[in-house]
Amino acid sequence: MTQRAKIESDGPDGPESRGGSGAIDAGAELDPVHPVRPPAPRFRPGGLSTAEVAERVARGDVNDVPVRSSRSTSDIVRANVFTRFNAIIGVLWVIMLIVAPIQDSLFGYVIVANTGIGIIQELRAKKTLDGLAVIGEAKPSVRRDGTTAEISTSEIVLDDVIELGPGDKVVVDGTVGEADGLEIDESLLTGEADPVLKKPGDPVMSGSFVVAGGGAFTATKVGREAYAAQLAEEATRFTLVHSELRSGISTILKYVTWMMIPTSIGLIISQLVVKDNNLKDSIARTVGGIVPMIPEGLVLLTSVAFAIGVVRLGRKQCLVQELPAIEGLARVDVVCLDKTGTLTEGGMDVTELRALGGAEPAYVKKVLGALGESDPRPNASLQAIIDAYPDSADWRCTESLPFSSTRKYSGASFSEGDGENSTWLLGAPDVLLPAGDPALDEINGLNEQGLRVLLLARSGRELDDAAVATGVKPAALVVLEQRLRPDAADTLRYFEDQNVRAKVISGDNAISVGAVAGKLGLPGAENTVDARKLPTERTEMAEALDGNAVFGRVTPQQKRDMVAALQSRGHTVAMTGDGVNDVLALKDADIGVSMGSGSEATRAVAQIVLLNNSFATLPSVVAEGRRVIGNITRVATLFLTKTVYSVLLAILVVCFQVEYPFLPRHLTLLSTLTIGVPAFFLALAPNKERAKPHFVKRVMRYAIPGGVIAAVATFVTYLVARHHYTGAGALEAESSAATLTLFLTSMWVLAIIARPYTWWRVGLVGAMGLAFLIVLAVPWLQTFFELKLIGTTMPWTAVAIAAFAAFLIEITFRWVNHRFPA
């Protein structure tokens, strides 16, 4: 009898034993603060009526937990506007608007524009992410008015009857009403990996998922009352935290803040007290010294780069559930692939049926047809059998055993048309047959051709006997051919080119998996390992994993152990999969990647969901991550070089008791041409270099020497100019000479960061240099920025000092790269 038949035989209300969530004393008083909800009704196979659903919606018994795939609009605005550095700059901006010309307040308008760009980009990312989340949202099957339909999780009401099958996630808390070999994994809630067999009356908790069998349960807690509601909401939240890139930037900004405070105080005292200058001019120069210390654009540019990454991937139907996943996948050096659904398409075809032991082919086909009908939720292999061999109406299923990836077989007991009873198993031949069985040689030959082989065997034991697979009698081999993904070979080739090692980890026969991998050109596909022979000790397992590429007969727990073993060797591991047996490994991997058509459980734990089910999308994700990290590392050097030279210049000014050489307008011009505009283009440029660790070290090893040389060169020019120029307008001439040296030195840092050169990178650097020349050449721009080179001696001296500084920076960067490789 099938599961569907069982549902109908229970009658409209089901057996008394399949009750709700329990009863309460009829005379008990209700606490007005914490009212006790009335007892749930008995399990009703047909589900609620339309009127009952409407009644529960009216009283608020709806699963209304907002599944937030992204930050709210208010959170995005707050995060971009209300920052520590924006507050500092905002105060300085107001001061400059009061005491100085508008030219010295340009830095404030730049911050407003940058913040606006950041908000717009994140809102675009939010729109993309929210739209994809709706597309990727799984819809549970709910019975209402005697029929089953898929609805959104937010439409579930209290007492709804929800069906469960392999791979389904339990979306609300409830009580089991029907169970047909129902095994639920609660590891995401309890940490216990062993599946729990559920029977009618047993509770189920949201956040768990089905690994075998099927059934249905009554919802007893919905919305925020459900056990895993808070966890589910948190798991799908759009976040910019928990990444080496973001934490590294936060660390840098913390130290910058500590340096800024004493330096700024010293500069203020120096300019306002020690030097007896015009008050407004002193304030302007003080602000001019403080503003460039703040690398405000670095945080903004990182957010924008991540947000644009989400939008780009969204266009390729890739849902990034956690933004750091873009960064994480870029750091991956080992990707573990599940064969089924990743290298091969979900569908399969029966290519041959070989009868064994004198079995009649016609009888074998009847058995296979009946087995197909016995499982209401067939996997890909069984679906191929159902398509090839229709059910025989005169056979009746009396008991069924759903397929489990742990035991590697399924089964059913039948009452045949002539009154005879029989028990049949269908599964992996090397599991059902003893070692050395003659049939295994024939099977190995088929596996070597990349074909999948299932054994149909008759058991002399009852289906619920733990030893049902012992001593079975082989009846037939079912030969299946898997459909290779047309894009899988190119994707594997991409990973090979990018020095990312691919490991195929499958529950199927190792030889068969190796043959499939070989057809796709996987390096080392001939090195196949039967996971049942793998050592259990982590170090030895890691050695076996490093030396081989294809692993078959891997259990779900072994997949998890293999991920941990690879991580123990310092590897950053990505795991792909679509089946429920992949969940534990996906959860433990550095990056979990799920197919959109995969089970709801895999989509729930994965950081990246490929909604188009295309393995070929992965290179795009890797490339996007490498682009973001590599480019942010590049531009961070620009921002922090400015911070270093600004702090050091302020210290030198305080120590030598001289006027600060720059007005805010000077540094706004320099920052725009040597950092702001170039950084924007460099941050969005293609970059295929694999992400490397130690972000802070990699950035600061260049920023510190570059900033120190730029500051010293600029200050030397300033001191020489102070001795060269005298009389009215001397300070303006001195500032112009110092600005020229700082610009040329900063341009050389930009030229180094822009390498390797392409036509557009050369054009970018050239355009910035041309823009500065235009400012020096056009009279009204000279006046606007208060930049005018006087004479020829001092300007050429400034150029010579800058050239020597550029030479030192070049030599120093090369020495640092050799001495302190990162």
TrEMBL record:
SUPFAM superfamilies from the UniProt entry: Calcium ATPase, transduction domain A, Calcium ATPase, transmembrane domain M, HAD-like, Metal cation-transporting ATPase, ATP-binding domain N
Keywords: Membrane, Translocase, Transmembrane, Transmembrane helix
Domain of life: Bacteria
PROSITE patterns from the UniProt entry: ATPASE_E1_E2
Region (Disordered), start-end ranges: 1-47
Subcellular location: Cell membrane
Keyword Translocase: yes
Membrane topology label: Multi-pass membrane protein
Residues in P-type ATPase A domain copies: 141-234
Transmembrane segments: 81-100, 106-123, 255-274, 294-313, 644-663, 669-687, 699-721, 733-753, 760-781, 793-816
Keyword Cell wall biogenesis/degradation set for record: no
PANTHER family: CALCIUM-TRANSPORTING ATPASE
Name of protein: Cation-translocating P-type ATPase
Taxonomic source organism: Streptomyces goshikiensis
Taxonomic lineage of the native organism: Bacteria, Bacillati, Actinomycetota, Actinomycetes, Kitasatosporales
